[in-house]
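Listing S7. Sequence submitted for prediction.
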Amino acid sequence: MKRIDLKGLVLKIACTLFFLACAMPPLSVAGAEPVTAGAREKIEFESESYTNLPDMLKGKPSSGATITATLFLPKEAKEKYPAIVLIHSITGFLESCEGWYAEAFLKEGFAVLTMESAKSRGIRDAPLTGGWVLFGSMVADAYHALDLLARHPRIDTRRIAIAGVSIGGDIAHITAFEKLRASCIKGGLRFAAHAAFYPTLTWGIEAGTDSYTGSPILIMMGDKDDYGPPSKLQSYLDYAKQAGHPAPIETIIYPETYHGWGNSWYTPSSYRTNLAKTAKCPFVLLAPKSPNGLTLLGAKGIIAFNQDLWSACMAAKGYHIGFDENIRSRSLADAISFLQKTMQ
């Protein structure tokens, strides 16, 4: 019987495998999953478009949408990173605004996911007409981003926050509404913290034991903001407190500051007569138990949602907008302090 040369056989197999490995073409960059520090990952995901927030509770999207996003990892090597979903303003993602905040958060050790919600849906005139049609859709995008990051191997699932500017600040607030979260996210997954830079203060939720997810919320605004004035936010906080269910919202108000302080493109400060605003509109409250899912928070308390009243106040235009470098840096420091404290 012929003896088998085991050493020779093993050597032949090893050489063959080495040859095959060298002969195979390398994986394309687009198909490979970047897991190294400092990586930039392009992502596309499917989302939904909604006419309004109550339609989200009913599970009735008006259409679908493909969203383009980018995930940035910090340069410092770590096994897992805390992450921030960064939501853009009504004009869409701009390097002069969201790009600056993304880079700043990266330097502080946060992974950052940015995306384009408006232009991906063909919406390009929202600053002139108002962003009413964007709210539900942008909330859907944010929840999809949360679910995506929670499954990413380099992200700490327990430490995913959301931050946004202007209408993106509204989304950062709205995504803390428990009814919406539960309608879109299975299980107990939620954002660990919510940070809003000068939101427009369009949406709230009727006060109740389960109105909010319980995650902390920071809202930063300027005392001269005549788009989302501090007095309007205070009326909402007073309402929730008097109802016996205070909103988990911490506020910071910066002196001598207009709307848009985080966008260097708004230099110098000016009054824009053609831009839609909701400063004099009552808060629209998500109200799952009302007939159409909405109510309004008026000067004398909650009233039924009236489309004519809402449309009339939405027709108002004109507010001050202006970049402030010092306030942008200060608000960033305040946001980072808040996130580090709440996401330990």
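Caption to Listing S7: primary sequence and predicted structure tokens for the chain studied. The radius of gyration is 24 Å. The chain has one domain: 33-268+323-342.
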